Amino acid sequence: MAARTWLRLSSSFWFVPSVIVLAAMGLAVALIELSAWQSTDLSKWSPRLFGAGADGSRAMLSAIATSMATVAGVVFSITMVTLSLSSTQYSPRVLRNFMRDRPTQAVLGVFVGIFAYCLVVLRTIRGGDEGGFIPSLAVLGGLGLAFAGIGVLIFFIHHVAVSIQASTILHNIGQDTAEAIDRLFPEELGAPAPPDVGEVELPGRWHPVAASRNGYVASIDTDALLMAACESDRVIRLRVSAGAYLSEGDVLLEVGGEEPPSGAVCSRLRGCIDMARQRTVEQDPGYGLQQLVDVALRALSPGINDPTTATMCVDQIGSLLARLARRRLPDPHRFQDGRLRVIAPAPDFRVMCELALLPVVRHARLDLQVIGRVLDAVEAIAAAACTGDRRRGLDRIARDLHAELAQVRPRRRSREAVKRLRALEAARLPAAMP
Question: What is the DSSP letter of 213?
Fold first, then answer.
């Protein structure tokens, strides 16, 4: 539960700016108190740095606060334009990556934090008729933060220009998906079946536990689920995996045993499965692959017609599927202390390959560049596959590629194009393909 809460907070657009604002206010209070405890008159020691009067300090901090508030509005406007452009040009599914972009969150927090810093310091400046207090260190700190804000603004403009490039977006999606694959495969949910276990004996009766609301399965707390199964001495069979959509009343899991589980146990088991309004990639690598497919199909659409972006998506998809092909997929039956505790649905490698590559093949519109990159990806995946079953899982993709190649030949007048296609078909397709 704590991990899920932290993930949601760190992925939100407001959490990091709020932390920076609180830190800026704390810095202002600390410098004000330090100025109050300072026995030496700093204005006499260095009048050019600390010699500003009350009116001059107020005017400078007011100007800084006003400019920072304006720049924060500009940063927010640029962010909204970037989100709109990315949603239109690439896919609405990539918006979450921009919302959880740490540099953007930090930049917005810096400008709002400087604004809050100036307000706190302004409140403490008093003229001669009011007691005569000027926190020289805090005023100088405000000037330093203003110059730092100028550097942050320049960095933000550069960061936005880089972040909306197709290569950056696809790299970020691929990196998040690769981290999810490394984390989940093999997934450590208890232990796999012992070598001498023989046939697994299942409970005679199953009692369903239904979802209490609509939403996508964002994550499953496997440790808590295994602990609940051990403490209740039951076998739990998951009926969903991360990324599935459920309506209220749909079955989340089933509990084995003669007696149905109590209401408290059902509530505890529901709490192990986090429901959200949208899919997340942390426990759902298929969602990362789906984002790449969406960008590729958008790039191949007649309105955009950008095959280069599509080939970049295929490169990322091929790399991720080859990474997955080297992994051991988890056993559906999970044991603890030699006893069956959890039955979890295992991912299907063939289905993931088909969902990631077949839509691109069928929307390539006979583009030789895209088809050639898909052939490269299929060859790399087949070479990385650790079992024959996974290689045979690529057969359907290979058949669709053959069909696309057969359609291209009679439409091309270039002898070089025909020769290249034949070479691709003969040399690039893995030997295991029909």
Answer: S
159 and 16 part of one domain: yes
Q: Is residue 269 part of a domain?
A: no
Among residues 146, 164, 182, the one where a domain terminates is 164
What's the confidence (pLDDT) of residue 413?
A: 38
Predicted pLDDT at 189: 44
| Number of structural domains found in the chain | 2
pLDDT tens for 239-250 read 888 888 999 889
SS3 159: helix
Find tokens 């599935």 and name the residue.
244
- Count of other CB atoms within 10 angstroms of residue 337: 8
Strand partners, 343: 237, 333
What pTM was estimated for this model as a whole? 0.79
Sort 109 into a burial class: Cβ within 10 Å, 0-12 / 13-18 / 19+.
buried
Give me the domain span that covers residue 305.
288-327+348-428
Q: How far apart are CA 162 and CA 358, in angstroms?
A: 30
The CA-CA-CA angle for residues 297, 302, 307, to 5°, reads: 55
User: 383: Cβ–Cβ under 8 A, 6 or more apart, which residues?
Assistant: 322, 430
Identify whether 260 is part of a domain: no
Confidence of residue 392 (pLDDT cuts 50, 70, 90): confident
Convert the pLDDT of each residue in 327-336 to its tens digit.
Answer: 877 777 788 7
Nearest to 122 by CA among 134, 109, 110, 137: 134
Q: Is 358 exposed, middle or buried (0-12, 13-18, 19+ CB in 10 A)?
A: middle
Q: What is the pLDDT of residues 141-188, one digit of tens each?
A: 888 899 999 999 999 999 988 888 889 999 999 999 998 888 887 644
What residue type is assigned to position 50 of the chain?
Answer: F
